[in-house]
Each structure stands twice: as C-alpha cells, then as structure tokens.
Amino acid sequence: MNTTVILPAAGRGSRFAVGDRASASKIEFELAHKAVFLHAIDLFHGRADVGQIILAVHPDRLDDFKFRWADKLSFLGVQPIAGGTAERWETVKLALDQVADDATHIAIHDAARPCASTPMIDRVFDAATKFSAVVPGLPMGDTVKRVDEADSKSTPPTSPIDAILGEATSPTANAKAVNETVPRHGLYRVQTPQVFERSLLIDAYKALTPDNAAGITDDASVVERSGSTVYIIEGDPLNLKLTHPADAELLEAVMKMRDEQDAKQAAVKQLFGDDDDD
Questions:
Q1: Burial of 242: CB neighbours in 10 Å, binned 0-12, 13-18, 19+
Q2: Same domain for 166 and 106
Q3: 130 and 10 co-located in one domain
Q4: In whole angstroms, what is the distance from residue 119 CA to residue 116 CA?
Q5: Does one domain contain both 106 and 128?
Q6: Which of 51, 128, 234, 260 is 20 to 30 A from 145, alpha carbon to alpha carbon?
Q7: How many CA atoms does the CB half-sphere of 228 hold within 13 Å?
Q8: Confidence band (pLDDT; 50, 70, 90) for 218?
Q9: pLDDT digits 0-9 by tens, 89-124
C-alpha cells in the first residue's frame, strides 16, 4: 500500500484568534507551540505506507503561505499547491491532479483535525487494504432534531438597560422551530482520514461538476454518488476539528493528555525494558 495524503486547507483564511493569541488563518493557529496544519502533517509524516503528502491552500494565499512555511514544508517533504476558491470538493479535485503515479491509495484528511490517533489511522489504513472506500465514524449518541431554518426568532432582551444603551447586556438566543426528531439509529458522525483506492476516487471526481455537486460535504459523498459502496469503521472521539475558538482549549487538552500518556509509557518501557531483551 502506497498512499498519497491530501490535506485540504483552502478556506478563505480569515484571521483566527483565541484571547490574545492570533494567527493569519485557522490552520496556522498554534496549538501546543505548533501550527495546526503541522500537527496534521505529523500524523502521516514518516509512515511506511505514506509516499506523498499534498497540502492544498487557497490560491490567493499560496505565495504568502509559502513565504512563511516553505522551509518547514520542504524539510517534511510536503507539496503545497493551490486549491479551489469556493467548495472543498474543488480543492480535492485539483489536488488529485498532483497525485504520484505510483500511489495505490489516496487518503484525505482535514488539515484542521490535528488529534487523530495513530491507532485510528492504523485501523482506517488497514481496512483500506480490504475495502475500496473506508471512512472513520462514530454512532450518533445525541438526539437529533430537524429545524425549520425559515422559522427563526430571537429572544427579546429582558433588561431595561438594553433599551437605553441600544445593545444587549442580558442573555439572548436565536430560536428555531423544530420540525421533527430524526431517528438516530444507523446515523454516524463521519471523520477523516477517508481512504480510497486511487482509481476509484479519481474516477468518481472526474464525473463531478458544479452542476451535479450539490450536497457534497465530504469525499465519501463523491464516491457514494458514483455508485460505489463506502464502509465505516470505528472512529476516534478525540479526533476533533478546530472550527471555533472554543475548540482550541479542547484540542490542547487532548494533546496534553496524550503527551502525558506517551511519557508514562516511555518511562515504563525504560524501567522494565522490552520482553525481547530477556
């Protein structure tokens, strides 16, 4: 198995800030003293079953991004390219043109998911040797509601000070009417990396155009639309995505916990040695 990993990171790249910490974009925000996208690269760099890593950024930001990160990317052997300007699938489609000829599989992982565990990635990659399309996922545990987006109301301010100042000082909420409760049996929250046989994914994307791409939210959706079967395996509850500023604290807590676990395992190994040493 020789895998090309594509990391889509072609969002508009608006400034991302948490408290007094800020960065030029979300994927460049520092978590545990390292940019988010570098954590994502580290998940795959050095794996024997990964032969190529492609990082796709917004075309308007590519030159500026290279100026800041070219040395690091070159050291890691990562290929930065220009992605799409609007939809995620456009970015992946452009990245597919850069996939090495000897790649047998293609893995696509969100550049903003820095905490995917090695055991989970191992599970996905192993399953990809048996099935042509594999994604990690978790069964839906929460009750799911479908709402009427058109029926939305804001709760009125309750403090008389609000009327005087012309701004909200009391709690407010945007309320949406519930249409139905969706049965959650058989529903999964899908994560990345998603791994596919090279030819299957490329052929599925060749058939995708702006006219028939409505509703495409991930790469598995593209493959499903082509008529092929996608298989879900066990994901990782801590494979969180940096989307909102509040996510940063959770991700750093996960990183700290895993660093402590690794340190304990290393200490135990040093103390007792390997069984093979007997």
A1: buried
A2: no
A3: yes
A4: 9
A5: yes
A6: 234
A7: 22
A8: very high
A9: 899 999 999 999 999 999 999 999 999 999 999 999
Longest dimension (CA), the chain: 79
Same domain, 99 and 219: yes
Residues 76 and 95 in one domain: yes
Domain count, the chain: 2
CB atoms within 10 A of CB 130: 8
CA dihedral 110, 112, 114, 120 (to 10 degrees): -30
Q: Which residues have CB under 8 Å from 143's CB, separation 6+? A: 181, 184
Question: Which CATH number goes with the domain that contains 237?
Answer: 3.90.550.10
State the average pLDDT for the chain.
87
- The model carries a pTM of 0.85
In a domain, 277, yes or no: no
Residue 69 is encoded by which pair of tokens? 């990160």
Q: Single out the residue of 219, 217, 191 nearest to residue 204, CA to CA.
A: 219
User: Which residues contact residue 89 at a Cβ distance below 8 angstroms, ignoring those fewer than 6 apart?
Assistant: 205, 208, 213, 216, 219, 222
Q: What does each C-alpha distance from 58 to 5, 164, 222, 244, 265 come to in angstroms?
A: 18, 44, 21, 19, 40
User: What pLDDT score was predicted for residue 224?
Assistant: 92
Give the pair of three-digit tokens for residue 194. 């998603």
Contacts of 38 (CB under 8 A, 6+ apart): 72
